[in-house]
Amino acid sequence: MNNHKQSHHYIDILFVITLLGTFIISSILLLIMGLHIYQNSVRSMNLNYDTRTAFAYITEKFQQLDTDNSVSIRPFGDGDAVFFHQQINNSDYQTCLYLDKGELKELLTKSDVTLSPSAGQNIFPCKALQFTRLSDDLYHITIISGEGQKLSVYISTHSGGIQS
Amino acid sequence: MKNSRSGLFLIEFLIALLFFSLACAVCIQLFVSSYLLSCNSVNKNHACMWAENVAEIYSASGGDYNSTLTMLSNTEKLSSSDLKAAIPKNLSSFLSSDSQKQSKDFTASLAKNNSDQIFYLYFDKNWNLLHQSKDFSAAYFTLILSDQNISDFSNADLYVYSFRNHSADLLYSLSIKKYHQKTLS
After folding, report:
1. Partner of A164 at 20 to 30 A CA spacing, among A155, B33, B66, B95?
2. pLDDT digit string (tens) for A50-66?
3. Residue B49 belongs to what H/E stretch?
4. Contact list, B41 vs chain A (CB under 8 Å)
């Protein structure tokens, strides 16, 4: 009788411990799952942000500075760079977008002044940048972002450009 | 007395576990929908960028279908015949899922006139452009340009579809109009 009571007591404790174990394991699994989902969401948000920023920034620059014969491509920094020529108070200025030491940089100078590529302002991290002129009014830009995401951007200008 | 106390504790524990399971089910549902939303947002972002890219090429080509086709095939290293390759049969079966796509010929339903010209770009699940027509049946996304010839201006409609879970969803659409420059004599 006493033995039977004791085994009943053991099963009671074992059942409660099993329930507690299930509860703890399920909680941990749920937390890990939430963590992975959150990590994925943040990663894809960052990727979206990187690609959208790069795309919007370059497109915006072309649209903002697209005047008659104002766009040209020539080597500067770590490869080819795009130059936008403009006149401010009867002086010639140029805005340059280029790659230097893993960063996309922008530099606004007078056309007759030559500065080193390190003088530019950092825009965003970028592994590779390539500007190609496909026709008088179409440019192709290939960007590999800091995260390694490849981005292909086509931009048409409305004013033509200078032969590179 | 002791038995009744442990029984009550057990019931309380079971109720807590039941409540936990319900909360778990709700959380998992939220996690899944958040994951799907984030995937959808990435896909829409890429769809929007590719549609803008093709629109820019179309605009730079003066709204000319053949020039757009040549420009795309040269820069993306695609053959013109691959660009005109219609949606593979295994994917076009997905298109019959909603009312807009119930037309027997999906391509004909996109074109507003018989003379309209259409081309397709196919992408894998990471939005890399597929270059070989034999790979098109494994495409996850397709971009379709339907060009209508109108005398005073060029008009094209762009659609980006995703093929997932045996259904085709319209991710992004864009209408392009390019007015032809005329010189007064």
Report:
1. B66
2. 888 888 888 888 888 88
3. helix B2-60
4. 44-45, 48
Residues of B with Cβ-Cβ distance to A22 under 8 angstroms: 17
Sign of the torsion angle spanned by Cα atoms B21, B24, B28, B30: positive
Query: What burial class does residue A137 get, using C-beta atoms within 10 Å of its C-beta: 0-12 exposed, 13-18 middle, 19+ buried?
Result: buried
C-beta of residue A40 within 8 angstroms of C-beta of residue A32: no
Whole-number Å distance between alpha carbons of A20 and B17: 9
Q: What is the structure's pLDDT at A163? A: 45
Alpha carbons A51 and A104: distance in angstroms, whole number:
13
Among the partner residues A23, A33, A155, nearest to B31 by beta-carbon distance: A33
Count Cβ atoms within 10 A of the Cβ of residue A162 and give its class: 0-12 exposed, 13-18 middle, 19 or more buried. Answer: middle
A positions 3-42 inside 8 Å of B (CB):
12, 15-16, 19-20, 22-23, 26-27, 30, 33-34, 37, 40-41
- Tens of pLDDT, residue by residue over A93-149, are 999 999 998 899 999 999 888 888 888 899 888 889 899 888 888 899 998 888 788
Chain segment B104-143, per-residue pLDDT in tens = 456 655 666 666 688 888 888 888 888 877 778 788 898 9
Q: Which residues in chain B (50-69) have CB-CB distances under 8 A to chain A?
A: 52-54, 56-57, 59-61
The reported pTM is: 0.79
Cα-atom radius of gyration of chain B, to the nearest Å?
Answer: 25
DSSP 8-state assignment for residue A47: H
Q: Please tell me which residue of chain A has the smallest CA distance to B17.
A: A23
Q: Do B41 and A140 touch (CB under 8 A)?
A: no
Cα(B147)–Cα(B174) distance, rounded to whole angstroms? 12
Which of B9, B39, B60 minimises the CB distance to A138?
A: B60
Q: Where are the domains of chain B?
A: 44-179
Question: Is pLDDT above 90 for B51?
Answer: yes
